[in-house]
Design a protein that fits this description.
heterodimer; A: 697 residues; mainly alpha; two-stranded antiparallel ribbon; 4 strands; 71% helix; B: 103 residues; 79% helix; 0% strand
Amino acid sequence: MPSVLSNLALADKACIIHDVIPLLIIVLPFSSFLICTLFGYKLKKGAGLLSLLLVGFSSLLCLLVFVDVIVSSKGNNVLTQGCWMAIRIGSKETPLVITLGYLIDPLTSIMLFVVGFVGWWIMLYSVGYMDGDPRYHRYFAYMSLFMASMLGLVLSNNFVMLYICWELVGLCSYLLIGFWYEREAAMRACKKAFIVTRLGDTGFALGIFLLVSVFGSVAFYPLDGVNGIFTSIGYSAKGKENVLALAALLLFCGAVGKSAQFPLHVWLPDAMEGPTPVSALIHAATMVAAGVYMVARCFVLFDVNVTGKLSLFDGLIVLSPAYLVALIGSFTAFMAATIALVQTDIKRILAYSTISQLGYMMMALGIGAYSAGTFHLVTHAFFKALLFLCAGSVIHAMGTNEIFEMGGLKSVMPITFATYVIGMGALAGIPPLSGFWSKDEILAHAFMHSKLIWLIGEVTAFLTALYMTRQLCVVFLGSPRKPEAHPHESPPVMLVPLIVLSIGAAVSGLFGTPWMNLYASFINHGVAHAGAHHKPSATVMLFSVAVSSLGVLCGYLLYGSRQIQSHLEDPLRKFLGNLYSFLEAKWHMDWYEGKAIRHVFFSLVGLCRRFDLGVVDGFVNLVGWAVAYVFAYLHRFFDLYVVDGFINGLAFVTGVCGDMLRRIQTGFIRHYMLFILMGFVFLLIVSLWRIVVLGHP
Amino acid sequence: MISSMMHYLILSAMLFSIGIYGILTRRNAIAILMCIELMLNAVNLNFVAIGAHLTPNQITGQLFAAFVITVAAAEACIGFALIIAIYRNFEKVSVDDINIMRW
């Protein structure tokens, strides 16, 4: 098979153990979901333990797969896949074969590890955080379903399974954001999240259809005689570069929705209405990274050399999908960081920070920094999950989300504070914590690729350091602003995950230092166009450190040096002036988008309503009326002529007989006597005849 | 013996025929009742004659004749009571005129 990806070693190991382990990874959490759903009321506290056990076993298997891939990646054998079920649809000559199965390569294995590891610790934390909730078992049912579908998403070897799991995690996100559905805000937020991501998913689905129409397959790589999309891009799509670029753009739409990129980022801050562990797992570490994962998985589609550019209007507008990804990513990173600067809700700050960091990842993938982008995904999963869990710990203690109602928590919650500092340092990019290395790698790539994107990245890094320092100072330093609250350190079941994740947040970056990039050499095994290895650039690195330190310093000077009583006294208000309220209103984006959506959709809905009322209902009513009329007519006919006819006929016959018979009742006794005589004579004749003719009476 | 038997039967048949003739021709209800008595007596005669002829040592025939006489007496009682009631209402006893029991 002539392939541009000839350096990619495809190995279909037909080994039982390799088919069963990925299946178990998905089935175990799913069975936990089923059990918690069906018997949750009986299990009560047991639901948490059960799902911890089953998901924990699944996570161990993820770890096993990860280790196995690390060991075998020394050789050529880097891609294992297998098929659980093949579905054949379409015509006999050109069937579309959907091979539902798993695919394990370095990217999958690292994602499995991150999802399994972070997911399990967050579930352990949930046991403490959700304690006493009336719907405790349901929470764990949803979390188990999420783990199953997220692991399925990562493992899938084709677009159909990817899409199914993609929607399933969206469903879990919806269910968990609206977990406390008694609160109106939560109810609104879950609807918003579902609808906004649906906008992107529509594009995703269209992109998949387009790919199917071009390649006649949904598989990523060839398996069991089915050709793979990524391997056949080079030779079977010649002359279709435009279509491929369009497909890449449509797939990116899905990623924009899921990973909360501009302009579909508006759902993520509202999603913070869900329980905090949910925000940590779904809306920080894993699900929102699914968009980044998907772009990384389809990386070859975004390669300009392979798919080319989309030229519209005879070349008037030339659009490269990769360039658009980088542009949207960097803009999102910058925009979200500016908004995070003025938020006062501890979780919303982290939510905007998540959007911003996801923007970084998209930007990295857009400029071809495959390993840097996915590395940032991994480190971000650790430190952002950690930050959210810390925030949850703080909220648990204070009972409020407003940072300006907190303060002075350093002495009360020392472990939370220490782990928070590690997470904050990792996010702000302080060496040698993990975020520094991954962010630096992205920025180094950006520096080589485009100075503009690099500049945006550096400004964002400065803002990140600033808003994280602001949050840290306001929440933990100074003196308490709310004297009536009595904060306390969280129970051990919540603190242990914090400590474990803080270790991850601290050291995971060390696997990807520029001098010895173990991560890059591992992940690049699986992809042909991994981009050039970047050489350590001391200038960029020093500049990054300087920018981050400056951000932290500014933050400390503004917020740490003196006590600020309320958000009205926020010193940034003075510096930024009108810009501050502009940022507070989130660039007025919610408002404009709400208005646009309202205009477009309400008119569309009105149109649909009129169509429904006029055409659909009209047709239905017509059919109903016609059927009713015909049947009523038939029924009337039957009733009148058959039923009534029978009854009337009976009466008529009886009447006629009676009319005839009554004539012999004359009232003359002699007539009666005559009839009797006649009867007697008749009987006499009969018996005489019998005697004479037959010989006996 | 057979010839005397025939005599009885012929007498009985004559009596019976006279009774039928009377019923069919007479208009007076009392006359009709009398004709019925004639017919009943014809039957009695038959009973007695045939009983004596077939079972000379038993009185089966006479016994039946006694029963018929009893029934006939009762019948005559009711019949005359009816006729008296009719006469009180219509002031006549002609059966041709009493024909309101019809359709």
